[in-house]
Design goal:
heterodimer, A: mainly alpha, 1% strand, B: two-stranded antiparallel sheet, 12 helices, globular
Chain lengths: 329, 328
């Protein structure tokens, strides 16, 4: 990527802590995403509309994790819990006849946030490796809870009767309309997260990541900032879960499994930890590896593992860092 | 897997308990023996994990995979040789060698890295181990025969008989725990290990051969995993993913016990063993007595399944460094 001297100066002026959503990157991306279903329809490849919906949903969940891991320095290994809780919120409400997206999607956000608040309040008393394991254990607790609750499907999960109803003449049962709903929701959530990062809140969060003691010495209530960040990430993950529940029309404890948490972490390390687009790029790379490798061999997870190991050992900050390094060189 | 073994015993004793309510004590003894057996096997995993963790500062998600690979190796060698004991010995040695190879090829590069990289690299190893085992042994679980002579029950008390093999596991677990204790507290290597756990830099400065120590420790941890996997093999199905549920329990154990502490690992493992096993039997019974059978069948298992996590949260709330902090 060739960068003009002016651009470089502008970036220096923004400072280390700002991650502006640049129009020249964001706008073409948005145009491509908006045009995608039309192109797919013309080419007769409707299948890909669903694939990209899925990528966007996972990108949303991974971006929310990147918010706390990449910018807040809180390596959570339990993010699938909030994702799954959001999905279950939609599934359970639908089981009781509540089909409106205006109720169940906010409910998923609230559920994700509530679980994140409680789990975070306990987990954030610890740090480092302890924090990783406690978030992991809490996520497993939610997993076993859902497995044992027979009233809500237990191990078999819940099959949704339909997708959520929005009204306003929109029918989510259509894959194209659902795609636009996903695009709208995830773009909004992404902008909110980017705004947060560039606001005072995000700056404090990144300062905590850089040096927690110093930030505390400057008078910031470190624990409260971290907890709020953790809760916001949980809320966004809950929203992503609600979208996924709608896409697959199925909710099961597998969504809460610790491997799912691992996959979100894989996505952000593939994309770039602490990079604004890390979650999106990671989701694309991961799902592409899955799609391509699984068409060659049933042992595709072996290939995934090998790629992941290579990335961790040789490109520690993900794909984006390699692009950046090349841009600087 | 573990769950299934435990549940069989649990439902068996529950049925009998309903029939004769005066054998309350026997049920409790039986549950305590089950807890002890489960706790000791958990200890074998947690011991390796806590050493690797406390001394090398490495969070190893592939520890459960070493347990799985150990169980497969023991089962395979036992089947080929026709003897459980040759299988156990061979599998344990082979797992130790495998652990050493893994340390030299991958793990060694991770010591200086941040926890996120370690988590992801070892998670990658876990994925590769699962698929690798599937490639070599296929998807269906292996069945391991009981060693000859330990198949039947033993009568411990009037009205209480207990499977001989489970008693053997308890004995073996206790023996290994004592040996480990002596190794850590009474030998030169143990001294270096403890020095490494409490202050790595200082241990290095005092001349501990850290490179070799790490290699030996990792291989030793892998061998302990194989002991646990091999011993549990005849009770449970040897299958892919068997290491993962027990891995997370082992993490809970070392978080409760305090990372790097052998004593903490033992106490934590026994505590988790009791709470998990006894909870699965006693909590539904308790719920049944308090709220009726409907509530018991629905809420009982749910409450029992989260008990150990509640325990862990409670320990962390009051003692964030665990019960027996090794560092400092």
């Amino acid at each position: 990527m060739a960068e003009t001297a002016g651009g470089r100066a502008a970036r220096a002026a923004c400072g280390l802590l700002d991650h502006p959503v640049r129009i020249r990157i964001a706008l073409p991306l948005l145009i491509v995403l908006v045009a995608l279903p039309l192109v797919a329809q013309i080419l007769g490849a409707d299948y890909y509309t669903g694939v990209v919906s899925r990528i966007l949903i996972f990108a949303l969940a991974a971006s929310s994790l990147n918010l706390i891991v990449g910018f807040g320095g809180m390596v959570s290994f339990g993010h699938a819990a909030f994702f799954g809780v959001g999905a279950y919120a939609v599934g359970i409400l639908m089981q009781y006849g509540v089909t409106s997206a205006w109720i169940s999607w906010p409910a998923a956000i609230v559920a994700g946030a509530a679980f994140a608040l409680v789990i975070g309040a306990i987990s954030l008393r610890t740090r480092g490796v302890y924090f990783i394991m406690i978030t992991l254990a809490f996520a497993q607790m939610v997993f076993y809870l859902m497995v044992s609750l027979k009233a809500w499907g237990g191990e078999d999960g819940i099959t949704l009767a339909s997708r959520s109803r929005v009204g306003l003449g929109v029918d989510l049962a259509s894959d194209t309309q659902f795609y636009y709903a996903v695009l709208l929701v995830s773009a909004l959530a992404f902008i909110v997260m980017a705004r947060l990062l560039n606001a005072r809140f995000g700056h404090v969060l990144q300062a905590i990541h850089e040096n927690e003691t110093r930030t505390a010495a400057l008078g910031f209530p470190v624990y409260r900032y971290k907890l709020i960040g953790f809760t916001i990430a949980g809320a966004v993950a809950g929203l992503a879960g609600a979208l996924l529940a709608n896409q697959t029309s199925f909710v099961s404890p597998a969504l809460l499994d610790w491997q799912q948490s691992g996959i979100f972490l894989i996505m952000i390390i593939l994309g770039g930890v602490g990079h604004l687009y890390g979650g999106l790029i990671g989701a694309v790379v991961f799902l592409l590896i899955q799609e391509i490798a699984s068409s060659y061999t049933i042992y595709w997870q072996f290939i995934l593992g090998a790629v992941l190991l290579a990335v961790v050992l040789f490109a520690p900050n993900g794909v984006m860092s390699m692009l950046q390094r090349r841009a600087r060189a | 897997m573990q769950r299934r073994g435990q549940c069989d015993i649990a439902s068996f004793s529950r049925a009998r308990w309903r029939g004769r309510s005066d054998v309350n004590g026997i049920l409790i003894i039986e549950q305590l023996l089950n807890s002890l057996q489960f706790g000791l096997m958990l200890f074998l995993l947690a011991a390796g994990l806590t050493l690797v963790f406390g001394i090398m500062d490495l969070i190893n998600l592939a520890h459960g995979s070493l347990y799985m690979i150990g169980a497969y190796l023991v089962a395979t060698i036992a089947t080929v040789s026709g003897s459980f004991w040759i299988g156990l010995a061979g599998g344990v040695v082979a797992s130790g060698v495998f652990g050493a190879i893994l340390e030299v090829s991958v793990i060694r590069r991770l010591y200086a890295r941040d926890p996120l990289s370690q988590v992801l690299a070892t998670f990658a190893l876990l994925l590769m181990a699962n698929e690798g085992v599937r490639m070599i042994w296929g998807s269906s679980p292996l069945v391991m025969p009981m060693p000859v002579g330990l198949g039947g029950p033993v009568r411990l008390l009037p009205g209480l008989s207990y499977p001989a093999y489970r008693l053997f596991i308890i004995g073996a677990g206790l023996l290994i725990a004592v040996l480990l204790y002596l190794l850590v507290t009474r030998t030169r290597i143990g001294m270096q290990v403890r020095a490494g756990a409490s202050n790595r830099e200082m241990a290095r400065a005092m001349g501990a051969n850290v490179r070799l120590l790490f290699l030996a420790l990792f291989a030793f941890g892998a061998a302990l995993c194989a002991v646990a996997g091999g011993l549990l093999g005849p009770l449970l199905a040897v299958q892919i993913g068997m290491g993962e549920s027990i891995l997370i329990l082992a993490f809970v154990v070392i978080v409760i016990g305090g990372i790097g502490s052998m004593r903490g690992a033992l106490v934590g493992a026994l505590l988790v063993g009791v709470v998990d096993t006894a909870g699965r039997t006693l909590v539904p019974l308790l719920f049944g007595a308090l709220m009726g059978p409907a509530a018991a069948s629905n809420a009982g298992p749910a409450a029992a399944s989260i008990l150990i996590y509640v325990l862990m949260a409670a320990v962390l709330f009051w003692k964030p460094q665990g019960l027996f902090p090794a560092n400092g």
